[in-house]
Amino acid sequence: MLRRYLVDPVEMWWPANLAQVSLFRALHEKETKSKGMSRMRFFLIVMTASFLYYALPGYLFPILTFFSWVCWVWPHSITAQQVGSGYHGLGIGAFTLDWAGISAYHGSPLVAPWSSILNVGVGFVMFIYIIVPLCYWKYNTFDARKFPIFSNQLFTSSGHKYDTTKILTPDYQLNVPAYDSYGKLYLSPLFALSIGSGFARFTATLTHVALFHGRDILRQSRSAMKNVKLDIHAKLMKSYKEVPEWWFYILLIGSIVLSLLMSFVWKKDVQLPWWGMLFAFGLAWIVTLPIGVIQATTNQQPGYDIIAQFIIGYVLPGEPIANLLFKIYGRISTVHALSFLSDLKLGHYMKIPPRCMYVAQLVGTLVAGTVNLAVAWWMLENIENICDVESLHPESPWTCPKYRVTFDASVIWGLIGPRRLFGPGGMYRNLVWLFLIGAFLPVPVWILSKMFPEKKWIPLINIPVISYGFAGMPPATPTNIASWLITGTIFNYFVFRYRKHWWQKYNYVLSAALDAGTAFMGVLLFFALQNEGKNLKWWGTEIDHCPLASCPTAPGIAVKGCPVFK
């Protein structure tokens, strides 16, 4: 339904697809003899090297994932470890030599446009090197020094981990008297500020797309595609039969009916009423286009899960399961829609008939949904203490950092609710102003681009992507993002500028090969060693070596393993 906006226009080029296109061409095209090795040979060599190398950070030498040398130099300094820890601190000076860690949260840096990398870098530097240090050390914003500077945990006012079981009813709802007795919930400063950046990112996305792409969207909405510039791919695709829109409407209606049926039959279990389900679908419909425009042009996907959970948290406070379900049907529906649109653009590049793509996507979704559910069920039943950080080996691959943050979000937005944390009198109420700030920031950029049209760099200033430099932390760490930025800068600026022929021939193939080799070794390590409980324990398997980075620095806060300040 959004093909005319996000697939057909030449401006919507979906950078991530270029790596897949390069891989398919390397595998299937016969190359004419040219200087240097073929792309196929290059792919196989790099994939093999990546496969063998990942045994080091993935099993033998995990410290390569977070190489925090600052902590070795100052092993007894809390401040130095807060600054230098790649796992629990700001990660200044830390780096990772693990491709899985580099590409885990923002995707492969080799396929991101240089302008996108630069925007993310500006936001990251502002956030990690300026805003967070000022809020923590100078102003003690949100009682920041009572807690670790960076953590995905929830805390009490005394700096200890928040025990959510003490405020839950047997029906998984908020026990208000127990909450009032136990006390308020607090976040680590970086976590709280990252949530605030999500507020700004959402409104900035809407404003940016309206100002910079609104005219194109309106023109295409009026069926004026004949006046839109079509690239060679779009012209060639006109020879295939398009997928009728009613095919998509059948899927949409069927999905909505089944979802509504679930909300009626298992009403007490899912907590989300039928109107909440429709609200989630409506919200997804509204935001998919503006988010898709950003992703299709910058390779960065501004999330709106915080906004979705914020809204339903006000409407249905004290209902954590309803909050999570609303996020799934709202945010995750958008993620999958954009994934399908990206696949359609891939078919666009590869000249695959749209109807074949439709069938492949439908079959793939059914198979993936079934397999994913079965694998998740098997893992929960067979992997001991999965996602239980307190009971697992520190270097275990099953600590589930993403799902820990998902759990935190269900507590923040669903169980306790935004009114208590972000409403009048709430500890984090001032963060709500970032909605307004985010909506305003793209305006001066747009005005400058109109005043100085000859300055082609001004429209490249992308406020939603700049705010993406704060995004996803946690579960991402500053080291993940910093290493992503450095890698992207090396290849998409220096290599592109000084070895352009090499970049054109091998860059995207390199990205695909690194992904493939790492993935294959990851699967092998799990089934051959980690699933059998065969874990190593030596200096190189102890990630980070920064035990003091998680310590609070406020006077009188006593936490196990940390000194108490007076």
From TrEMBL:
GO terms for cellular component: membrane. One of its GO terms (molecular function) is oligopeptide transmembrane transporter activity. It is a multi-pass membrane protein. It comes from the Eukaryota. It is found in: Membrane. The keyword Manganese does not apply. Keywords: Membrane, Peptide transport, Protein transport, Transmembrane, Transmembrane helix, Transport. The chain crosses the membrane at residues 42-75, 117-139, 190-212, 246-266, 272-294, 358-380, 431-448, 457-473, 479-496, 508-529. It holds the Pfam family OPT. GO terms for biological process: protein transport. InterPro entries: Oligpept_transpt (IPR004648), OPT (IPR004813). The keyword Ubl conjugation does not apply. Belongs to the oligopeptide OPT transporter (TC 2.A.67.1) family. PANTHER family: ISP4 LIKE PROTEIN. This is Oligopeptide transporter 3.
